[in-house]
C-alpha cells in the first residue's frame, strides 16, 4: 500500500544519493517520500473514506514540502534539478 519495498528503496538511494548507504541525503529523502506519496495517492483514490490514510498522505506531503524548502534555501540548482528529475511542479 503506502510502503515501498527494499529493492525500490535501494534503487532510489543509489540514484539520488552519493553512495548506496547515503539515506540521510535530502535528495534521497525527498525521492523516497515522493514514491510513498504516489503509492498512497493511488490507495486514497480507491478508498475515499479512509481518513487515516488521507491524513498520513497530508503529513507526508508536508514533510516533503519542508525538505524541498530547505533544499531550495541551501542549494537552488540542486533543488531545480531534483524537481525536474522527480517530475514535481509542472
Number of separate structural domains: 1
The number of helical segments is 4
Could you please say which CATH topology applies here?
Helix Hairpins
CATH superfamily label? S15/NS1, RNA-binding
Note the overall shape. Answer: globular
What fraction strand?
Answer: under 5%
CATH architecture: Orthogonal Bundle
Residues in helices, as a percent range? over 70%
Query: Termini separation (Å)?
Result: 26 Å
User: Low-confidence stretches at least 5 residues in length (pLDDT < 50)?
Assistant: none
Average pLDDT level = 93
Radius of gyration: 14 Å
Q: Can you tell me the CATH class?
A: Mainly Alpha
Helix and strand pattern: HHHH
Structural class: mainly alpha
What is the tally of beta strands?
0
Most strands sheet: none
Protein model, in words:
- This protein has helices at 6-16, 26-46, 51-74, 76-86.
- It is built from four helices and no strands.
- With 90 residues, it is mostly helical.
- The mean pLDDT is 93.
- It has a single domain, classed as S15/NS1, RNA-binding (Helix Hairpins, Orthogonal Bundle), CATH 1.10.287.10.
Amino acid at each position: 500500500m503506502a510502503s515501498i519495498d527494499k529493492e525500490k528503496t535501494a534503487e532510489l538511494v543509489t540514484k539520488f544519493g552519493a553512495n548506496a548507504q547515503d539515506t540521510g541525503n535530502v535528495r534521497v529523502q525527498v525521492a523516497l517520500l515522493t514514491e510513498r506519496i504516489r503509492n498512497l495517492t493511488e490507495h486514497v483514490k480507491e478508498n475515499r473514506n479512509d481518513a487515516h490514510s488521507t491524513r498520513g498522505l497530508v503529513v507526508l506531503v508536508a514533510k516533503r514540502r519542508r525538505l524541498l524548502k530547505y533544499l531550495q534555501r541551501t542549494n537552488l540548482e540542486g533543488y531545480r534539478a531534483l524537481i525536474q528529475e522527480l517530475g514535481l511542479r509542472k
